[in-house]
Design goal:
It contains eleven helices and eight strands.
């Protein structure tokens, strides 16, 4: 039990601040569409579902110089996001009129908060650190539950320590932690699944192999046309999946890559869907279509990790629940660091 206690305290002291950042930024991002709808015109507009209207808007937006793609309006956010190089972009209403634009992600709080939450502003290195913190979070829940069991008879729920002394912080940490443990475990498991695929493969193993059918088929495309037929591609995508919402359009990243459209079918949880269509960048003909609902069971379970993690399902009640989880994690992580590094017990003086 002593080694469990040491591992729990030292890991919390080292990674607690990372987990606190994840919790706070996650709690903010859960409500991203809601606060953007209060600050941007037309953000609360109902989603336009007519393929012809979507095609016309796509043509207008993709005529923007250096346009790289579009994130389309959804049921909770009524603006399209135009993607431009180097973090630049714009929001446009569903008729294609620009509402606001920016030259870097630092001009939009939702973008840099997202980058902080996913990459700690350091790209792939930060993502790996977050993955390690996620694995540590799972360890915290397991070891914390074991440690709590010894003192379960003294349980007393407190949102905040009675005093900012180390014993009171430890007591509040222990008892609040056991209350939110199931939500913290859910957040840690689903978040780590998205970063470390071997871990995800272990989680979904009861449902089959994640390697089978989880990757979009590779196709070879011609060079990008100077004037792609966006209208024809949008209409072809909706004809292929009539029940689906168009969610993303992306131009090729390198020669030989296709133009990609992602759609969200009615039975999908993933907010941007995983039903993918690949079009030849030279002439716009359909090269391949990947139906997310036809994927193996393991791949569909994996696709459910993000919507569970980001509260993209379950409505307002689940968003509030995950908000509580994020705020609790922020408190537990920050107070763990504070108590470990700054509130150490002072050694007792020996009588002189």
């Amino acid at each position: 039990m002593k080694w469990i206690d040491l591992a729990h305290r030292w890991t919390g002291g080292v990674l607690g601040l990372v987990l606190a950042i994840m919790g706070l930024t996650g709690a903010i991002l859960v409500h991203e569409e809601s606060w953007l709808s209060l600050t941007l015109p037309h953000a609360a507009d109902a989603r336009v579902a007519d393929p012809a209207a979507i095609a016309a808007t796509t043509e207008r937006l993709m005529a923007t110089p250096k346009a790289q793609g579009i994130v389309y309006a959804g049921d909770r956010f009524g603006l399209h996001q135009l993607r431009l190089p180097k973090g630049a972009g714009a929001y446009a209403d569903q008729a294609g009129n620009i509402v606001t634009s920016w030259k870097s992600q630092w001009a939009r709080p939702e973008l840099w908060i997202f980058d902080l939450h996913h990459h700690l502003f350091t790209g792939d290195i930060g993502e790996t650190v977050i993955g390690v913190a996620g694995l540590a979070g799972i360890l915290f829940v397991v070891t914390g539950s074991i440690l709590w069991w010894r003192t379960r008879r003294t349980f007393k729920f407190r949102l905040w320590p009675k005093r900012m002394s180390r014993p009171m912080i430890v007591m509040q940490h222990r008892d609040l932690g056991i209350v939110v443990a199931p939500l913290l475990l859910l957040s840690a498991v689903t978040g780590t699944m998205m970063i470390f695929k071997p871990f995800a493969a272990i989680v979904v193993a009861p449902f089959g192999s994640l390697a089978q059918g989880s990757v979009v088929p590779k196709v070879k495309s011609g060079p990008l046309s100077p004037a792609p037929d966006w209208r024809a591609m949008i209409l072809a995508a909706h004809a292929r999946f009539p029940d689906a919402q168009i969610r993303l359009l992306s131009i090729p990243r390198k020669p030989g890559d296709p133009i990609t459209i992602r759609m969200k079918r009615a039975g999908e949880w993933l907010p941007n869907g995983r039903s993918t269509l690949s079009f030849d960048a030279a002439d716009g003909h359909l090269l391949a279509a990947n139906d997310a609902l036809a994927l193996p069971r393991a791949a569909q379970v994996f696709n459910g990790a993000y919507p569970l993690h980001a509260a993209k399902v379950g409505g307002l009640a689940y968003r509030l629940l995950m908000t509580c989880s994020g705020l609790a994690l922020a408190m537990l992580g920050s107070l763990a660091v504070w108590s470990f590094w700054f509130k150490r017990r002072k050694p007792k003086r020996r009588p002189g």
